[in-house]
């Protein structure tokens, strides 16, 4: 397997400039369903449905922050369900694409900010009913820092949702070799194998941040039918819901 490259880091919180550059270069394609982010468009209904099933119903009126929101595919879907959503990211071009699409769609209960999870946690500790951080942890040098920030942002009794890619030979073959080089589901170089997280690692980082792992769900893909579906197989792509304990009376 390829050796990990040395990332360019900024002086900001947990920021890899090479990763930001990567997403900035494709920002104009965020809302193209057949562009660089086509796989996110295809899996978004699955992500949204699972998040909705794991939150006490309904999403209507819940305050949610989407960490690493990119062009706003998930954030906008959550807002359409009636949640009061804040999307945050560190790629300005992606946020501009997100804001323009929300403006064109006339979605009022959705806002975006250029800010890190760590900085927002210092400003807005415990202010969100739920936090989503999807397909983001594998793009930062210190995922534990992001997880701690997500935990701080969540109110007691709230839920944090993560999704990422497992780290094992099967995940390398399917999520990197196949998805990037053979099927072109995502651009080449999107993922660094050394940064992928096993479910046990992610759960341990959550526990260290005082979160309680509650539910895992896997995501699978059939390259022949081009269909994604949820399953209990966590060997490649997976999601995890973790709860922040409620305050004792």
Describe the protein's architecture and organization.
The chain is α/β, with parallel strands linked by helices. The chain has one domain (17-243): Vaccinia Virus protein VP39 (Rossmann fold). It is built from eight helices and eight strands, in the order H-H-E-H-E-H-E-H-E-H-E-H-H-E-E-E. Strands 3-2-1-4-5-8-6-7 form an eight-stranded mixed β-sheet. The longest helix is centred in the N-terminal third of the chain and has 17 residues, at 38-54. The chain is globular.
Features:
249 residues, alpha/beta, eight-stranded mixed sheet, disordered N terminus
Write the SSE topology.
Layout: H1 17-25, H2 38-54, E1 63-67, H3 73-80, E2 84-89, H4 92-105, E3 110-114, H5 117-123, E4 128-134, H6 143-153, E5 154-165, H7 169-182, H8 199-208, E6 212-222, E7 227-231, E8 237-243
Parallel strand pairs: 1-2, 1-4, 2-3, 4-5
Antiparallel strand pairs: 5-8, 6-7, 6-8
Helix pairs in contact: 2-3, 5-6, 6-8
Query: How can the largest sheet be summarized?
Result: 8 strands, mixed
Q: How many E-type strands?
A: 8
Fourth CATH level, the homologous superfamily = Vaccinia Virus protein VP39
Measured on Cα atoms, how large is the radius of gyration? 17 Å
Quick one: CATH class?
A: Alpha Beta
The residue-averaged pLDDT reads: 92
CATH fold group: Rossmann fold
The helical percent reads: 25-40%
Q: Determine the strand fraction and express it as a percent band.
A: 15-25%
> What is the number of independent domains?
1
Distance between the termini: 51 Å
- By secondary-structure content and strand pairing, the structural class works out as alpha/beta
> What is the helix/strand order?
HHEHEHEHEHEHHEEE
Number of helices: 8
Low-confidence stretches: 1-11
Dominant shape: globular
Strand order of the largest sheet: 3-2-1-4-5-8-6-7
CATH architecture: 3-Layer(aba) Sandwich
